[in-house]
Automatic annotation (TrEMBL):
The keyword ATP-binding applies. L-histidine binds at residues 77-79, 107, 121, 125, 268, 272-273. The keyword Metal-binding does not apply. It is found in: Cytoplasm. Its main location: cytoplasm. Keywords: Aminoacyl-tRNA synthetase, ATP-binding, Cytoplasm, Ligase, Nucleotide-binding, Protein biosynthesis. It catalyses: tRNA(His) + L-histidine + ATP = L-histidyl-tRNA(His) + AMP + diphosphate + H(+). It holds the Pfam family tRNA-synt_His. It comes from Haloarcula amylolytica JCM 13557. Residues 31-431 form the Aminoacyl-transfer RNA synthetases class-II family profile domain. One of its GO terms (biological process) is histidyl-tRNA aminoacylation. PROSITE patterns: AA_TRNA_LIGASE_II (PS50862). This is Histidine--tRNA ligase. The gene is hisS.
Length: 435
RNA sequence: UCCGGGUUGGGGUAGUGGUAUCCUUCAGCCUUGUGGUGGCUGAGACGUGGGUUCAAUUCCCGCACCCGGACCCA
């Protein structure tokens, strides 16, 4: 017996069926918006992350030298890869680019709830549009993915913020404020003591009076967001609040405004965000834990050697989504489902095989005996795979040119002429022949 | 990397310094044709390495893995 590697999981069919449903739900939404699926490598040059990712990510890299002496790493995130792909074909791609991808990523860190060393996420990105409509479309896709999973406004909330508003307000206090550091402090606001939070702001270059005033300004409601420009007298802030308002207006038209809450204290840690940022929170859980986040990152492509290209996207992790769905009671039962089991008794394989084929042509999941088992054992197996209907193709039935249809939930069964089965029915059951 | 709690047949459990309980599961049979619901028979476990001891699944230490937390964040 071998153990699996720490933080790497096996998924057995019951759970996989539920995960498949969730993945398909997410991808269907993206496909309906015209996001095109891309495929990406599991390995990239280690250098790409050392150059372009934060130090934390590099520390968590699974990296090694391959047999050709190349330093390679298992991809810890998709963004550098899509940036690389985009830059490589930038001239020939017609903008805006809308890409989607679901796949595993790897990070060497300590597993805990909703976090593993191998984890799956669905990345959704738009490249080449700086328009608020693009931000709003990303938000719409995010909301629709969640609602298609069966979640409602009771279960989640998307908090929207804007990096440029934070930066502009901070700068209005003085040119020497360390904006990234202050934003990191804001990002931690909910987790630390209020005094420590204020200390961190002071550390970033504000004085205590400014820190208080700044924090007060962050509490502002969506309706009053535009007053920030007058409060600070900053044109940068005005441009940023106008942009946020435009995104919210577009989100209104897209039918997802009700799921969005303006919350300037939502900052997100990553340095590369530039405009709108957002974070999805579990509103049912006692701990309001971040489920996933996203936002605009207009400078990143240029950093990869491309023409300056605006970009916006998000990437929900499947493990945390699963937790959210389970808490909300919308995660499907983790059990197998089977439409038909075609049971053979004696040498009835030719007929059983024909029936199984006919049913499969109608798109059903159909199993039949491949282990030469007894009647009772086959019935037990059919029960074990949750077969809804058993078609008994026995020697006795065939002597009368019949088969027996049995519904497994109530045990009712009926003989049906062989020539009439499956007949014209898409999904023939006991009911169809009961009269 | 750090902290806390775990690890007993495939799954779930009881228990003990002298190798282990019950439920379920699985296989077969009763029953060449009825599962979820009977009866019988059988299979199957103390994570790993070391220490203490006459004897360790039990006590001690290390490690691995699992669950959760810190850090960090997707």
């Amino acid at each position: 017996m071998y153990d699996s590697v720490k933080g790497f999981r096996d998924f057995y069919p019951e759970e996989m069926q539920a995960r498949r449903w969730a993945m398909d739900t997410l991808e269907d939404v993206a496909q309906r918006y015209g996001f095109r699926e891309i495929g990406t490598p599991a390995l990239e040059p280690t250098e790409m992350y050392v150059d372009k990712s934060g130090e934390e990510i590099v520390e968590e890299l699974y990296s090694f030298e391959d047999k050709g002496g190349r330093e390679v790493a298992l991809t810890p995130e998709l963004t550098p890869t899509v940036a690389r792909m985009f830059v490589a074909k930038q001239q020939e791609l017609s903008k805006p680019i809308k890409w989607v991808s679901t796949r595993p990523f790897w990070r060497y860190e300590e597993p805990q709830q909703g976090r593993f060393r191998e984890f799956y996420q669905t990345n959704v990105d738009i490249f080449g549009s700086a328009e608020p409509t693009a931000d709003a479309e990303i938000l719409a896709v995010a909301v629709e993915m969640l609602t298609d999973l069966g979640l409602t406004g009771e279960d989640f909330e998307i908090r929207v913020s804007h990096r440029d508003i934070l930066a502009g307000v901070l700068e209005s206090f003085g040119a020497d404020v360390d904006v990234p550091e202050a934003i990191r402090a804001v990002d931690k606001r909910a987790k630390v003591d209020h005094d420590d939070y204020l200390d961190a702001l002071v550390e970033a270059g504000l004085n205590y009076g400014q820190a208080d005033k700044f924090d007060e300004m962050l509490q502002i409601d969506a309706e009053e967001i535009e007053t920030l420009a007058d409060l600070t007298g900053s044109e940068d802030v005005r441009a940023a609040t106008d942009n946020l308002q435009a995104v919210l207006d577009a989100a209104e038209d897209f039918g997802v405004r009700d799921h969005l809450t303006v919350s300037l204290t939502t900052a997100r840690g990553l340095d590369y965000y530039t405009g709108v940022v957002f974070e999805c929170f579990d509103s049912t859980g006692e701990v309001s834990r971040s489920v996933f986040g996203g936002g605009r990152y207009d400078d990143l492509i240029e950093g990869f050697g491309g023409q300056p290209t605006p970009a916006v996207g998000f990437a929900p992790g499947h493990a945390t989504l699963q937790l959210l769905c389970q808490r909300a009671g919308v995660w499907p039962a983790e059990e197998l489902s089977t439409d038909y089991y075609v049971l053979q008794v004696g040498d009835t394989r030719p007929t059983a095989a024909r029936i199984a084929r006919d049913l499969r042509e109608r798109g059903h999941v159909v199993e039949s005996d491949v282990a030469d088992r007894s009647f009772g054992a086959q019935m037990g197996y059919a029960d074990g795979i949750n077969a809804e209907t058993v078609v008994i193709v026995g020697e006795q039935d065939l002597e009368n040119d019949e088969v027996t249809l049995k519904e497994m939930d109530d045990g009712e069964q009926i003989s049906v002429p062989l020539s009439a089965f499956p007949g014209d029915y898409d999904r023939p059951t006991f009911e169809d022949f009961a009269e």
